[in-house]
Amino acid sequence: MVSVHFSILPVCSRRVKLPSWDEKRKGKEKGSGAMPLQFSRVAGRNRLYSKGLGIVAASATLASREPQFSRGFWPGRPKPPEKRNGIGSGVVFAAAKETTPDPFFDEATVALLRAGDTLGVNQLESPAMRHLLIQMRPNGLDDVVQALALLRPGAASAGMKERFLRRRRGLEPIAVHPRLEPVLRQTQGLMLYEDDALRVVRALTDLTIAEADRVRKEAAREHTEDEARRLIQEFADACAVHGVPRAVAEEQWRQLTKFRHYTFCKSHAVSYGLIAWRAAYLKAHHPLAFWIAALNNNQGAYPRRVYVEAIKRAGFRLLLPCANRSRGPFTPEGDAVRAGLGTIASLERELLDNILAERDHNGPYRDLADFRRRLRPEPEALALLIGCGPLDFTGRPRPDLFLEADLRDRDKGQAGLFAAEPADWLPKNYGEDCRLRDEWRLLGFVVGPPLMSLFRPQLPRHLVTSRELPQHVGRRVHVAGVTATARHTLTAKGRPMQFVTLEDEWGLIEVTLFPGSAPQTPYLTLGPYLAAGTVEDHYGVLTVNASSFQRVPPSIYRFAKR
After folding, report:
1. Where is mean pLDDT largest: 9-18, 214-223, 400-409, 436-445?
2. pLDDT at residue 290, as a whole number
3. Mean of the pLDDT values across residues 212-234?
4. CATH 3.40.50.1220 is the classification of domain 453-556
5. Is it true that domain 303-443 has CATH number 1.10.150?
6. Where does 388-481 have alpha helices with state H?
7. What is the mean pLDDT of residues 371-400?
8. Cβ neighbours of 268 (radius 10 Å)
9. Is the pTM of this model over 0.70?
10. How far apart are CA 151 and CA 146, in angstroms?
11. What percent of the chain has pLDDT over 70?
12. What residue spans define the domains of the chain?
């Protein structure tokens, strides 16, 4: 039995003594500009402390036949990081044995992140974030934190995201003024966090923290051209006093202005990074528990059916809801995932609770008649339960169950007249297409075959699948898939464009609809959709730049017409 519990812990405010910001820098800095954080063990759970910051951390507990996590979520206690200038670098942990493996450099988790296999991982599952992880090739938690900050509008603006990736991959040299090297050493010489803006101003000008903060705020505001020129001149003059060339000052000022857009401070990025790393670790080492938690969370970036298809590709069986085996949410059943009764569309909560309570108190249901006698469900609710699997435990075809329910409803009050007469005729069981269509209508997903495989027989035969895309880089291809997610945005020139993620039997296909190349689709349905275009590789991320994108006409396929 596996039970997974994710919780958001209350924010605890604890004063952390910081070095004085008002001291002039003498030689090396006495303190880091990043807010120090501390993990401590409180009531058996991890709590994240920070001075005056609203930080929360997720806690996961796992109780199962699988190996237990020691010390909360981690496979061992982490060793403390190396101390620098009297302040812990990054996240500061309580004292631990030096021989314990560092959980933030787990090989399986790193491999998962580098592959962009983060569907279902909190904060890391969007197409843009999955692509960034592939491009960055992270080595541990610090890189995850940087990725979370880099994807914010401020940090990624003005071509900074591309510059960051080129420098990280060794395609562009990192040229940083000596005064900025201690500040921007770990971020490829670029300002990534809000904290960096303040630290850069102080490093270049030796201003006090209050004065530097005023400069940072001025740079982040909108100004007229005359005001902007005046501010740049004042900043350049203040930098020149300390031997900083004007070109360096102007470049740093341009980076400062990007913080008028939304950006993470480092403590915010770290708190999200810890949650994301934990979820990725769970997916890498306990995938069944992870997927059950992801399905029950139901707050991801994708419809539930996308996670269901990912579970199938991960090699786990998905079982239909069952009146005798299911609970309300998804639960593990051996090496499979059992859908809960709560997944049935329009099933009233009162009836769901009654099914579970009656079963717990008086034992499993024997057959349809026993189920009806003990619960007395309304005809509409009974039709829902017959149509998508909860009453399959009877071992009878669903048309037979529908017939029995219909006859008993008609003969209510007259059962004694005909009860002794056995039925000599049973309705013929309907085909797989009809059964899957009912399950899709009532559950929003199908168990068994991949969803896209139900459309494949009616599609053209020359299509390239998601697993074949790496062999077609630079070539024109035709692909097909059902819609996983989509996003509308604007180009730098203000023209609308669209990103669409399609899904086939083997994975996800990223399609880009550039203005002037392919018309956008304002309202995407399930599909499937056909796309034609050229496969491009951008630092390991494969996309189809479409020249055409259209929905397959519903008239040519039989399943899930909508």
Report:
1. 436-445
2. 96
3. 87
4. no
5. yes
6. 398-410, 415-418, 432-443
7. 92
8. 22
9. yes
10. 9
11. 76
12. 3-152, 154-263, 303-443, 453-556
